[in-house]
Amino acid sequence: MGFGWKVGFCFCLLLLLVLLQGARAEHQYYNVSRYRGKKQLSGCSLFQGKWVFDASYPFYESSSCPFIDPEFDCIKYGRPDKQFLKYSWQPDSCNVPRFDGVDLLRRWRGKKIMFVGDSLSLNMWNSLACMIHASVPNAKTSFVRKDPLSFVAFEDYGVTIYLYRTPYLVDIVKENVGRVLMLDSIKGGNTWKGMDVLIFNSWHWWTHTGKSQPWDYIQYGETLLKDMNRLEAFSRGLTTWANWADSNVDTSKTRVFFQGISPTHYQGKDWSEPKKSCNGQSEPLSGPAYPAGSPPAAAVVNKVLGTMKTPVYLLDITTLSQLRKDAHPSAYSGDHSGTDCSHWCLPGLPDTWNQLLYAALVM
After folding, report:
1. Distances (CA, A) of 91 to 39, 45, 50, 158, 349
2. Residues whose CB is less than 8 angstroms from the CB of residue 96 and which lie 6 or more positions away in sequence, other chains included
């Protein structure tokens, strides 16, 4: 009996240690991956999957939404094909909850939400406003479109969704030498305080050169440069933003998201069609991976988010968006000369970004 009791006791003790180690490992796993947006507590990998045809899409008609900027209104400006509207994102390991605008308004009742970033933030902001409006088409709304601050308010619910345009997140300041991109300065951040949800985004403008570049010099610390490696500049600027968030965001009140890197489709060699661009594309790539791989900026985002003490949920939309070479305005933009393979038609891909935002909030 004594020997058997000792064996049983040792076995139970060993089992308890294994269970504790597993629980600790699971806690560490979710703690480490909280910023990546790769995995929910439900075990669902939202951003790994494929595009499938879905006759129930889109969520709304562009003609019925009063908030769409002309540059995204592809149907109004003559895009003849409609199949690009009929795809939904299907994760490999679970189902994404169908977007429910009424439910979201109830969850957000009395709250303030803000998108902060460039024209891809505008794209996503337009999309979310249209998706919610389609759920409550008779709701009283107010709409102000200005730079840098715009908003849509759903007054019956006390919900206001803001857009703050700041392409670099850090400041551009007029100095005696000219326009200076200040990699270690965020003065606009005072406007971001007091929000209940913040969705940040940056990268699109960091690659601009020549006449489309809105600055003349770059400065960090006392160093003033005519130019520098743009990935390094992005990393320095994003680190300044991360420090701002760690110092200013009250995580008991505010949830923070980072909108992942949105890809472009100007060079067909990236998806094995070297003589083509997004123009004339009518269906997604099958995936699951993108032939050209992940853009280097995505690694910068992952690295910087990994250093933060503030929990930031990464909406990791890069790969799923890379597969949508068919979803750009191309020649059918109302406010973009030439071929636009940077932004996205509405209705369209940003609706999926917002469906995944909704999933991240409710799952």
Report:
1. 11, 7, 6, 33, 15
2. 46, 88, 89, 90, 355, 356, 359
- Give the chain's mean pLDDT: 90
As given in the structure block, the two tokens for residue 138 are 């008779």
Residue 58 neighbours by CB under 8 Å, 6+ apart: 85, 86, 347, 348, 351
Cα 350-355-170 angle, rounded to 5 deg: 55
**Distance (Å, rounded) from C-alpha 181 to C-alpha 225?**
10
User: How far is residue 351's CA from residue 138's CA, in Å, rounded to a whole number?
Assistant: 21
Chain segment 219-247, per-residue pLDDT in tens: 999 999 999 999 999 999 999 999 999 99
pLDDT, tens only, 58-86? 999 999 999 999 999 999 999 999 999 99
Tell me, letter by letter, the H, E, C secondary structure of 43-76: CCCCCCEEEEECCCCCCCCHHHCCCCCHHHCCCC
Note the residue count of the chain. 363
2 pLDDT higher than 90: no
DSSP β-bridge partners for residue 52: 88
Q: How far is CA 149 from CA 66, 67, 135, 143, in A?
A: 18, 15, 25, 11
Query: What kind and span of H or E run contains 15?
Result: helix 2-33
The mean pLDDT value for 29-55 works out to 65
Q: Which residues contact 44 (CB under 8 A, 6 or more apart)?
A: 91, 93, 94, 363
How many CB atoms lie under 10 A from the CB of residue 234? Answer: 24
3-class DSSP assignment, residue 12: helix
Give the integer Cα–Cα distance in Å for 45 and 43: 7
Listed in sequence order, the residues at least 6 apart from 335 whose beta carbon sits closer than 8 Å to its beta carbon are 69, 70, 71
**Distance (Å, whole) CA 266 – CA 328:** 10
| Closest listed residue to residue 89, CA positions, set 361, 360, 362, 353 | 353
SS3 state of residue 133: helix
Q: How many CA atoms lie within 13 A of 255 on its CB side?
A: 15
Residue type, 205: W
Q: Catalytic positions, please? A: 119, 340, 343
Is the pLDDT at 31 greater than 70? The verdict is no
